[in-house]
Amino acid sequence: MAKAPDVASFDFNILLATDSYKVTHFKQYPPDTCKIYSYFECRKGKSDEFKETVFFGLQYILKKYLSGSVVTEEKIQQAKQIYELHFKQSVFHEEGWRYIITQHNGHLPIRIKAIPEGNIIPRGNVLFTVENTDPKCFWLTNYIETILVQVWYPITVATISREFKKILAQYLHKTSGSLDTLEFRLHDFGYRGVSSQESAALGGAAHLVNFQSTDTVAGLLMAQQFYDCQMAGFSIPAAEHSTIISWGRSQEKDAFEYLLKQFPSTPISIVSDSYDIFNACKQIWGDDLKDCVEQRNKDSMVVIRPDSGDPVETIIEVIRILEGVFGSTLNCQGYKLLPSFIRIFQGDAINLHSIEKILNTLKNEDWSAENIVFGCGGALLQKLNRDTLNCSFKCSYVERNGKGLDVYKQPVTDPIKGSKRGMLTLRRSPDGSIETVEEGKGNPEEVWQPMTLDLLVAVFENGNILQEYTLAEVRSNAKLQADDPQCFKPSVELLHESLLKGNS
Fold this sequence. Notes:
The protein is an alpha+beta fold.
């Protein structure tokens, strides 16, 4: 029996970054196979909650794990020993991996085409394709499925974050007439709630596609290192319960006052529900420290943070108390606005449903959405999985002895899990919609220029990154269409221009 190697002595090993059963698949394909072609999509689901997706995160995976000379003799030996122990027999394709070293200098003979990152694509369309470039490495295409499919996470976070943005944009526009502060209306509080540092980085960066407000430092570093953005998000000084209750209950006012003195010229968020949020707003903020609060301005505002109770009921009561103490004015849309030196921050129990309920209740009470900023953690970065958007990777085309064959699955028990067939093209139809065209389908007599261009861009080939996107470009692709505030759909013109640019 082989002795287990010291895993800590090796760098990341792509040979080990797969599901166990895939190690045996090189023996399962037809013996004359020379090409395997697969694709990734977010299938249409039974729920219509998310009709479109934000494509983001593949660039990180390619740069971090797949680019360059990733196959070495040391890694082959490590994988060989691990799999012999794991399977209790010799099933590892040592010869195939060594061929990649000798013939490709350890570079993966793979071609990947993908939609430009940040683009908004309706569910049910191909997002990227993968194929082998060396006929002897047909087995490699689906070997790397496992690590490629992990792009589901940043795609899902970016998609959910953008849904938050749509809701916020709609109410902000209705009640204030301006979207100037939209990108700072949802703060990422998810760092501690995710499963790992890498999750925090990927999820945090995915949120930053849509917003510029975060406390997840790992996401900032991800955006800086892999998407060429020096500083992607911002924050302000903020209290937590430990910094308040360490003063003792009898000195809550002293704690608040001390914080105001420590941060006199910057916005400061102060959690105020350690004991009694309503007393804190009415007595401490509204009486004891009223003069101190009123001396501040929009650049040094006090942000009151409730952090418990029913969010709708609590926020309505808090804003009524603050209005009674500090007054309010009407904005250009006829909605009430607290003085610029004081605002509310709600970071507890926020999800897509509760945020809309809160904003709708405020609107019905004649309050502008300008009065409140939100924070979100678990519902943004953690309460999701691969099935949230039905992310799937499937083989659709093979070549055997040089002859092509369109392949697919079509389970009689679940039509939703049927897969596409053939080599795929993503294009824009004459009516402006995006559609996936399967090889051999469509009308060959249609002449569309430049609409017939494949919107999938070659991003990776034979170990080399062919196309990179900055976060600025990703954000531009993902931005909302501001001239349609009722729907805030992605701009057709902007999307088409960016896709054409990627193909140039």
